[in-house]
């Protein structure tokens, strides 16, 4: 899968979990999901499930821990779908 | 503080999600017109329930969008949570209160919002995933949707309430109990405002056990609006219902200070249990305890039995209706034409279980405010054991105008538990 395509899908997934006072334009590759985008830590679990469904992959504990920024997520998905 | 050394408590806001109407103005109209909210329930029919009718609130997409963000709606299957949030927010808004700022909660405002069980449908989804060894697929909202205190926790976050935040549970007494517990907290000076109420889920996973006990009507699946027949000679069981009712209770001092609209005053009430002794059991009421509860409520409210102008009963449409009327009669020592007006809304909303008390209390407060007693529907003829005790003129079939000063509302529940509230009109 193309990196650009993965990126677009991930932006779409993350957008859903933004707090109401954060615009979707705030999402950047280096955005930290919790610190920069203010996403509730409980929702990281839901983001991981959405990522699994979108790319038909399984994320393990290590993947979940490493998935701190949008870029991290892209790297993980890229590796799993390669 | 009054002679009883208690703060006076008034009702300054109400909210409702009922089978026959959503929102207080619509509910008021539905009660006036005795609009039935009992409909054929295809899901119950598909699942081979004996009773295939229910009182299920009609929630529109617009109403959901007004009360929940898209993120909150994702995977939201706990209907009771949905009803409770809508009703709770309506009551808060109706009282003219402001949501707390982002940094500090309102330390003098608490919540007691009860339920029987939360999110049966969500719990089923979780159970199926767990049994497929997919526990990690539950997502983050499984706990919030299925914990009993999910509703009070949700409302506390939305509104910013910083006093006691909890969810009580006492079967069909839940709503009336929450109301009284909130009243007591304000009367004792431990809170200034309390959001109180109760909610109950819709659906087969909540109602199935009652169908199995054969206490729901089975002969009205083609004529749903006729299914719920409290106090009638042909009462055939209670119609399962759901929804939520909510109130803002407030110290009179605070309400006057902020110029709030006042629906009525809470004079007091009582909560007790028959302890499954005497004729009481898990499912049947101990008559002595019911009478004691009513008497204790009068004592707490410092009023005499003769002062009660109207009663909104529990009256579910089972064989226990006549027993309830007899217990009221004995407790108040009033019978025949001297009995107060008595009614029940269950003929058009069904029995909303944990939500019954709060939904019916909203209707009772509307009666007090409008000086009316709404009609009882579906009475073929009154049960003879009832007319032995009470004159039929005390049981209106249609709305009647009556100057109401003091009214009583009671709920009686599985577990042999009782709750009785005494309300009074408020005049400046």
UniProtKB/TrEMBL annotation, chain A:
PROSITE patterns noted in UniProt: CARRIER
Superkingdom of the source species: Bacteria
InterPro entries the UniProt entry points to: ACP-like_sf, PP-bd_ACP
Domain named Carrier: residues: 4-81
Pfam families: PP-binding
Protein name per its UniProtKB record: Acyl carrier protein
TrEMBL record, chain B:
Assigned keywords, A-Z: Acyltransferase, Cytoplasm, Transferase
Subcellular location: Cytoplasm
Catalytic activity: (3Z)-decenoyl-[ACP] + malonyl-[ACP] + H(+) = 3-oxo-(5Z)-dodecenoyl-[ACP] + holo-[ACP] + CO2; a fatty acyl-[ACP] + malonyl-[ACP] + H(+) = a 3-oxoacyl-[ACP] + holo-[ACP] + CO2
Main EC class the enzyme belongs to: transferase
Domain Ketosynthase family 3 (KS3): 6-425
GO molecular function, one term: 3-oxoacyl-[acyl-carrier-protein] synthase activity
Stored InterPro entries: Beta-ketoacyl_synthase (IPR000794), Ketoacyl_synth_C (IPR014031), Ketoacyl_synth_N (IPR014030), PKS_Beta-ketoAc_synthase_dom (IPR020841), Thiolase-like (IPR016039)
GO cellular component assignments: cytosol
PROSITE patterns, per the entry: KS3_2 (PS52004)
EC number: 2.3.1.41
A biological process from GO: fatty acid biosynthetic process
Pfam families named among the record's database cross-references: ketoacyl-synt (PF00109), Ketoacyl-synt_C (PF02801)
Protein family (similarity comment): Belongs to the thiolase-like superfamily. Beta-ketoacyl-ACP synthases family.
Subunit (UniProt): Homodimer.
Name this protein carries in UniProt: 3-oxoacyl-[acyl-carrier-protein] synthase 1
